[in-house]
Each structure stands twice: as structure tokens, then as C-alpha cells.
Amino acid sequence: MTLCPAAPFVGKALSLMHAKPARTWTIEDLAKDAGLSRSVLAERFADLVGMPPMHYLAKWRMQIASGLLTAGNTNIAKVAAETGYGSEAAFSRAFKKMVGVPPSAWRHRLEPDGRPAAAREPAPGA
Question: What pTM value is reported for the model?
């Protein structure tokens, strides 16, 4: 089996995004740090990963955000900052666009143990 010559460069780009998801990445920065031109990185990344690098980064950030929201102990502004969004509003718009529900709704749909929120037992005396 032969290794695709693009794999090390795409792997480097993935490592960079995974290591610093909150960084304000541009395709130029990512390509420079991976050792390729913008166009070559974009083409090779899409060929190997199945989507452009910036789309992958947005999905990766939402995966991190959904985990933080499900854990329930981080406010939305902090989740926004930890995933590279300059404001809570920008994060909320992006989250709703990609996930389909606002961050607050996502947070309340599951308990930290993974049970649906609706399955909660009523509080004593309720």
C-alpha cells in the first residue's frame, strides 16, 4: 500500500487545528504552517478529508462546543471563547446553523450522564 504524498501535509494541518481550535485560523496561516500553498492544501485536504479545511475546522469547533455544552458546567460565552468565536452571538449563530438548534437548547437536551433531559425524575415534593 502506498501512502498518499499529501497525507503528511494534511496530517500536519489537522494536528494544528486540533491543537489550537480557538486560534483565528486562515487558510493562508494553515497552509504556511503545513508547508504548502493555499490552493494545494485546500485541494489535498478536500481530497483526503472530504471537505475544505475551514469547513472541517468549523465542524471540529462545534464538536468541542457540543461536548462542553453537554457537560453543563461552562457558560456559553466561555464555550464561544474556547472554540474561537469572538462573541457569544457569533458562536450562537454558527452553532445553530451547523447543529440545527441554539446552544442553550443543545445543553438542555441531554443530562451529563447522557440521559434525555425529559427523562429527569421530578424533584422531591414536586
Answer: 0.79
Q: How far is the C-alpha of 76 from the C-alpha of 5, rounded, in Å? A: 41
The strand pairing partners of 110, in sequence order, are 116
Count of C-beta atoms within a 10 Å radius of residue 97: 10
User: DSSP assignment, residue 63?
Assistant: H
Helices 53-71, 27-34: crossing angle, 10 deg rounding: 100
Please check the confidence at residue 6 and state whether its pLDDT lies above 70: no
Tell me how far apart the alpha carbons of residues 38 and 31 are, in angstroms, rounded to a whole number: 5
Query: Whole-angstrom Cα distance, residue 106 to residue 96?
Result: 9
CA 3/CA 76 separation, integer angstroms: 41
